Every structure is written in C-alpha cells, then in structure tokens.
C-alpha cells in the first residue's frame, strides 16, 4: 500500500482537521512508516479466526426505561464556548 | 517530614487514626512540597489548595467521628484524565485547556466517598497518547531519578509525583502500558487491573476497549489498599463488571512456595537491553529463593501486538475524539468562516501532532475499503494474542518479564520518531489487547542509575495473587523504598 499526499488530505478532511500542504507532506512520511509496521499483520493467515472486539465477552446490560439523570443544563452550558437562551450557538448552516 | 514522605499508606493511615497528624496537616505538607518542587518536575498541571484543604477538613471530621476507612484523609494525586467537579480537567490538551468539569468521574467519586483528598491533577501525554509525557500541551515532565530522562507516559506526571514524593500515591490509566511503563521508568509500583474492574465513567476516553484505570504508588501493599477503593461496579460504564467485592490485601502475606512463574521466551530475546536483563535475572533469582519455580513458556504472536495495537487504539481514538468539535465545551478556534471551517480549525489548533497523527491513522483504517484489511484483521490477530496467553496459563500461574526494553531514554531522544516510541510498548500492550491484569514493580537499576521495572502479568481477576507475588518480593528487597531524593 502506498499513501499519497492526496490520501492524507482526504483523511484529514474526513477527520475534520485542517491541514496545509506542508503539514500533509510531513505527516505522509510518518504515516508511511507506521503503515509499513502495520502491514506486518498481513503475513499471518487469519481466515479461520473470529474477530475479537472486546477484552471481556459480556453482553450489553439492559435497564428499565426510566429517567435517571437530572437536568444539568446550566452547569453544562456554563462551560460552553457560546450559548444563548439555553442553546449552543454555532455558525449558521441554513440561510 | 522525611518519615512522612517515605511512609506507606498503611503507616499514614495509622498516623491519622491515632491522631499523630491530621489530614489537614498531612495535606498541607504535601501541598508545600508541590509548591517547592513542582517547577523542577512539572508533575502537576493543576493544584488547588483551597479545594484540597476543604476535602482534608471533611476527612478530619470523618476521622474524628470514627467513620474513617483506611484511606480517609490520604492525599492522592489524580491523573488529569479524570473529570473532577470544579477542577480544571485538561487531559494534557489545549483542546480542554478551559474545561472545568461539571461532574465527577466514577474513580473520583469513589475516592471522595471514603474521604480521600485530591492533592492535584497530574500531567500526562495529550489524551494519554504517548510513552514519554512529551506530547503534553503543558510541557514535559522530568524523571526524578535523572532530569535528562523521560518519566515515561502517558501517566508520567503521576509516576514522577510519587517518585519525587510530591504525593503518597496517584491514579493512572493504561491503554497500552501507560501505568506500567512510567512506573518502571520512575522506579515505583503500578497496576492495571483486569479490564472492566475500574469504572471508565468520566475518564476521558482514548481507546474504550483497552482503557483501564489503576493505582500507582510506592509498594504493592499500597496498591492493594488503593484497589480496594477503586474497583467496583458502575452502571454508567457499559463494560463495568458486576462481581463480589474483594479485599486485595488478604493474600499479601501468602508464601510463594510452588508458584509457577512463566517466562515467555519471546520476551527474553533480542530487544531487551543488557542492563535491564541483568536486573530482571537477579529479580527472578530472588523469586526462586522465595520458593517460586520458573518455567519457560511461549507467546508466539508477541511481535504482532504493536501493529495490532496501532490499528485498534487509533481506530477507537478517532471515533472517541470526534466529540471535540468546539461546540459544547473546550477550545473553539477564534475565527472561522462556517460550521465545517469551525470544526476543522478548532481541531487543527486544539490537538497536538501526536493526537492528530493517531486520529488520521484511525480514520484511515476505518474508512471505506480498508476496514476489513486493517480493523477486522487486527481484531482477528487480537484473538490469536489472547489465545497465546490462555495456552500459556495452562503451564504457569503468573507471567514475568521486563516492563520496558530499556531504562528511561533521554528527553527528545525519540520525540521525532513515532515508530521508535511505539516499539517501546512491546511488552505492555498485549495486556490491554487481552484485558489481562498487569503490573510493574521496581527491581533495581540499569545504565546511568535509571530504574528497571519487572512486569508481572496475571490471569483474569488474579490481582490479589499478583499483589501477593509483588509484596513478597518487596518484603525481601528494598528497591521499592529507594527514592531519588
């Protein structure tokens, strides 16, 4: 697998991280090295192995559908970058 | 004061119970010490005298009323990854440089409940991503044994604080070795319990299927007392395990006769430096003297744990860290043109290079067309690694080896070479992939008189046995009592 600067820019875009051309080139060198390390995985045959997603094989717990949390709006919004009338403010998305 | 600094938690607890000292006095002593010495080590990001002393006062009331438990009134340094109500909680990042938590993490709640004192929030690699504490937005932490050496990471501030006696004990978190590696490099003891034992609620997530909190302290006995507080079911953590409460101090004094120690041949091979090997071999000789037997075992998939880890951890991180977008809390870029631009600039400015690197790796391995080749492949190999350990435990009770391939490296030595940094997790990351409990205890010194850690990996839920094995060694040796001061 060969990564290109275009790939790096595309990934950064997917991850919502602004990146300029110079940064993308520097990151490309590092990612290429890391992916060379990661590629060593491909040498092992795993066709008969099931994926292991978690350290403990536990099932998700269920609980009664009851309100358990009290309203924390004020304390949560006290640390928000921008709020007004109990709403989080972001740049307008619909004209 | 010196006797207080080097005292065990049991001794401090007995001083408090016998009214030899109050929690307020003890807390003040450590706060003074932090004021005097933190500029040398940079082990703490936030110290809040007023809040710590208020907790000490509450503890003194509990102590006076006879409602105290063993750690009531003891100052504990909390890693800055744990949300603590009213405390700045940065996770080592610019992204959370203004985040005063509106709530307590499960771990913090448990310490508050028994009246322990939060003595401050410790420095760490940004979002716990690093093995040297050099990725922190709040500056590098110094290793108290040698100011030129890294303290390890990501719980580098915690390890440095305990080694420099700025706090009697600390909390850490471990996703690929972040408790054990800094404990080893700073000459202290630390344990990552079985995945699911300690609540992850309010512990800022890095890689959810690998993250586990645990204590860091001077001795195995201290760790047992701390685990007694930290372990317990929390319904707010979907992977928290419901088990009967266990007293981790109960087995400490059991003799080690007949305990079978497995030595993975893959760990005692190329890669471990000579000075580390010498200290580990001496420690194993001590174990044989204590009545344990050593047997060679094999963990054939050991070399895979690094590539598997560096697919799974970044994948989970890229998903977890998508919540940092500048909308509801934390840093927001100063100027932007529209919503997408606000996200992009906020994340570009708020995250440091290592965090961005891992988000990019994770985004890539989860992206369309690569999911099976990387993410699913890594999860399959994860099972093979877990199977290695299951097979090994048919022949031994506990596994030992070095915690790290070398003693602490120099500040700056690996910071520009992520791959070299990642490879230093070779012995530790398998315990996270498998969920097994693992710990590190000091067993001597290597080059430049820098500490060496012995890695002890137990079977699932065998923390009491591991602490017993560590404690018996610490009864026969005094490495754990040595301090750099």
Protein described:
The complex is a heterodimer of chains A (95) and B (485). Chain A has a domain at 5-42. Helix content of chain A is 36%, strand content 4%. Chain A contains 3 helices and 2 strands. Chain A has helices at residues 5-14, 21-39, 73-77; strands at residues 83-84, 87-88. A two-stranded antiparallel ribbon of chain A has the order 1-2. In chain A, helix 1 (5-14) crosses helix 2. Chain A starts with a helix and ends in a 7-residue tail after the last strand. Chain B has helices spanning 2-6, 9-17, 23-41, 49-64, 106-113, 156-163, 180-186, 220-230, 274-289, 305-320, 339-350, 353-366, 371-392, 418-423, 429-434, 463-476, and strands at residues 44-46, 75-79, 117-122, 169-174, 189-192, 212-217, 260-264, 293-297, 398-402, 438-445, 451-458. In chain B, 39% of the residues lie in helices and 13% in strands. In chain B, helix 9 links the parallel strand 7 (260-264) and strand 8 (293-297). The radius of gyration of chain B is 21 Å and the shape is globular. Chain B has a domain at 2-255: Amidase signature (AS) enzymes. The mean pLDDT of chain B is 97. Classes of the chains: A mainly alpha (95), B alpha/beta (485).
